[in-house]
Amino acid sequence: xxxxxxxxxxxxxxxxxxxxxxxxxxxxxxxxxxxxxxxxxxxxxxxxxxxxxxxxxxxxxxxxxxxxxxxxxxxxxxxxxxxxxxxxxxxxxxxxxxxxxxxxxxxxxxxxxxxxxxxxxxxxxxxxxxxxxxxxxxxxxxxxxxxxxx
Length: 150
Fold this sequence. Notes:
Blueprint: E1 7-13, H1 17-28, E2 36-41, H2 46-56, E3 65-70, H3 76-84, E4 91-96, H4 105-114, H5 145-149
Parallel strand pairs: 1-2, 1-4, 2-3
């Protein structure tokens, strides 16, 4: 049996601490949690957001490696590149601070990568849903990729 691939999350953020907190909380609550979370924050009060994330979320998820840094340059591309320099996981999810993952999102994406032992798949993307995770009218989700692998 092969060792499962690890996945890491990178988030570039700017002045949206509330969105970021929700984003990170949903990410670590995945049925298949990340091995690491790397956040690069360009906010003026970035250290306050860092302290909140680390005390409220990271403390309850010690199996996850946490990196929270101030952005060297206030730019989405530069922030993402800064985050990528800190990652070690096999597969990286680059999401925005207002991207909220359904609880099985990572498991579904990682199943695609693990079903490709030759490494032909270079990238997989989640799809936009009409409702956020936890909304009372969240849509039923049938993974589209399953029929493609049959």
